[in-house]
Amino acid sequence: MTRIGFIGLGNMGGPMAANLARAGHAVQVFDLVAENLQKAITAGCIAAGDAREAVGGCEVVISMLPAGEHVCSLWLAEGGGQDLLGALPAGALVIDSSTIDVASARRVGEEARVRGIRFIDAPVSGGVAGAAAGTLTFIVGGEQADFEAARPILAQMGQNLFHAGALGAGQIAKMCNNMLLAIHMAGTAEALALGVKEGLDPAVLSTIMGKSSGNNWSLERYNPWPGVMENVPAARGYQGGFMTRLMVKDLGLAMALAEHAHSAVPLGALARNLFNLHATKGQGAKDFSSILELYLDKAPGEK
Question: Is the pTM for the entire model greater than 0.85?
């Protein structure tokens, strides 16, 4: 059993912490949302009064936060935050599974190294369903030895563990992945909307494309049309998934990365504009697969 601190219990972090508790670890958790804390307690985690209490006596600490500013505030006290690195003993391992900008990940990691604390950036892929099932993909940046030290913990939350390279490499790979995800989700929604407007059944069209050259993850595993697939956000009003506003954030990170690399990303830029337009129409809290609604004259099922 390992004593693990876990900070950030949203749609992804909550199920991840619960899986660690089910695996027999003592998981000390904190989140600003009381409801998230209560769910974690029900799943067998130990609630802490604040972030500093959550990391007390822990060998491993995991953070899952919305953006780089939150990560830097938590670990480095930037913007009046907590300097949580100062609460950890030398040799402790920090696993930051937030999806953030590369510079922030490297800044926190380098400061951790100076203080004798091991740090890896380990963003995830696989969605809320993957977090609940413990089948996430972890994309890790950092020292090989630190990746190996984290492997037993990561393996209890995910199935696919990749060491992408040095500190920050996990974030770079995640940005590339999410840019591609946004592109094929927008394309899938566009194709389904076209077919349905011309009289095709969305389930039949999905099956046809799924067995043809147009098949992709969004179509096969995360279909955006309500009623076509069970246990996806489209089946529950686009709730409980990866919010559109977070996809907009990730695409913004990808655009900044492309500018730094002097790399042309015309499809990524178009996808960002589409998801941003969708968010500005009041859909930012819905799952990103709700981009389907942008292509329709009315919401699916609306009379």
Answer: yes
